[in-house]
Specification:
Distance between the termini: 18 Å
Structural class: mainly alpha
Number of helices: 13
Shape: globular
Largest sheet: 2 strands, antiparallel
């Protein structure tokens, strides 16, 4: 079994480049910033560089002057950074705002099928009625588990676990153990039924992170543990020789995609004794995808549920994306923490 090799100085230097490039981007109160800030907060936790959190603090202090904007499930992803801000500075305004977002999810966000959050991107439009997207595990599911644990709020905590269990029920294929992108409950279909790399990354990362917050004696622990175990076992067999994963996981003619690969690699890192070889390959490929300015390259653009595999293969991947920066930072931070 190969040993995972981590050069702390190299990883720290790459993190610094990616963080500084990320703060040259402009963000709204939405999921690109939510995932970017999540990664930066993870980088702070791994490196202790206070300038990272100071920059996040400045953004939130300026943007909270007018209060919370209308919320959606995707917009709640900003709650991850708010929890990290509270844990760092102990300023109640961050926790109060995060709690307001959790209350929105609990009381106002649209749901279906006994409490599963419907994917929403706009507070004024019901674009995806009774659809579950795997993205929600990152935007809302993990957030609810985190804030429930922090506040000792069983209602938030259990609601977060409900999202993991419901999305597993609707999205994890019992044959392949991979996650579909989405489920349409009205039509009882997975629509294009594509195994999308970043979608599987959302599932792997959030399950790995959630397990650290759940007591091993809790009934949910083994449900999530086994779902992740089986998913990872399938994913390692689809890793390309380059170390990355294809944007359509089971289609080697689709392009290699870095944000999904970083999130998958973070999930694998939790099972490091088994998957050290695969994480090592992914690490080298991901580091190679960071250019001299700190931009993470080969990151697919925002991706709706596309009509077929060909459409996923044509999603552009030229531009810098907040989620690409954030997911790579979360993986690199996890590498440092593993040391």
């Amino acid at each position: 079994m190969s040993k995972l090799s981590v050069d702390v100085n190299e990883i720290t230097a790459r993190i610094d480049k990616v963080v500084h490039r990320t703060f040259q981007m402009d963000f709204h109160w939405d999921w690109p910033g939510g995932v970017a800030f999540y990664g930066i907060a993870e980088a702070f936790a791994a490196t202790g560089k206070e300038e990272y959190m100071e920059a996040i603090k400045k953004w939130f202090d300026e943007n909270l002057e007018d209060g919370l904007p209308p919320l959606s499930v995707n917009g709640v992803s900003m709650g991850h950074a708010l929890l990290s801000l509270y844990e760092t500075y102990k300023d109640e305004k961050y926790l109060e705002t995060a709690t307001e977002m959790a209350e929105y999810l609990k009381n106002d966000a649209p749901r279906f099928a006994n409490g599963i959050l419907q994917h929403t991107v706009n507070s004024k439009k019901d674009l995806f009625p009774q659809q579950a997207w795997v993205d929600t595990l990152m935007m809302a599911g993990l957030f609810l588990v985190r804030i429930g644990k922090l506040l000792h709020r069983e209602d938030f905590f259990e609601d977060g676990l409900k999202q993991f269990h419901g999305h597993e029920e609707f999205l994890q294929d019992p044959v392949t153990n991979l996650y579909y992108h989405a489920w349409d409950h009205l039509h009882q279909t997975h629509m294009s039924a594509v195994y999308w790399a970043r979608g599987n990354g959302w599932a792997a990362l959030t399950m790995a992170q959630a397990l650290d917050l759940i007591d091993v004696t809790h009934p949910s622990y083994m449900i999530i543990h086994d779902s992740l175990r089986d998913q990872l076992s399938a994913l390692v067999r689809l890793q390309s020789e380059s170390g990355l994963w294809h944007t359509v996981l089971d289609d080697p003619t689709s392009y290699l995609e870095v944000s999904g690969s970083a999130a998958i690699a973070l999930g694998l890192l939790r099972n490091r004794p088994i998957y050290a070889k695969q994480v090592q390959k992914a690490k080298e490929a991901i580091l190679s995808a960071i250019d001299e300015t700190g931009r993470v390259t080969n990151v697919s653009s925002g991706t709706a549920v596309m009509p077929d595999k060909e459409a996923y293969k044509n999603v552009p991947y030229k531009r810098i994306q907040g989620w690409g920066q954030g997911l790579v930072l979360a993986f690199l931070a996890a590498l440092l923490k593993s040391e």
